[in-house]
Specification:
Layout: H1 2-30, H2 47-56, H3 60-79
Helix pairs in contact: 1-3
Length: 93
Amino acid sequence: MRNWISGTATVLGALLVLSGSAIIVLRALNRTEPTAEATTTEAPTGPVSRWRNAARRLQPAERLIGWGIVLLLVAALAAGALSFNVSVGAGTS
């Protein structure tokens, strides 16, 4: 079952990354002026709001690439290529 999950996530992640990059290339080849985007006038008040504002400014193609990378990381975790070990020790001697 682990192999199926990692294989599916790998294929979907690769497709998302490739489709996002294809959209960027096609947009660059189109050579039309991009439409004006609405900008927010409020200043970020903290690191969380800065990240949130940065995420809102991402184009849909960039979001596809981001989600593709997340799926590729999930596939690596499911396949066992990445693992996390957490250990806690008490200093008793």
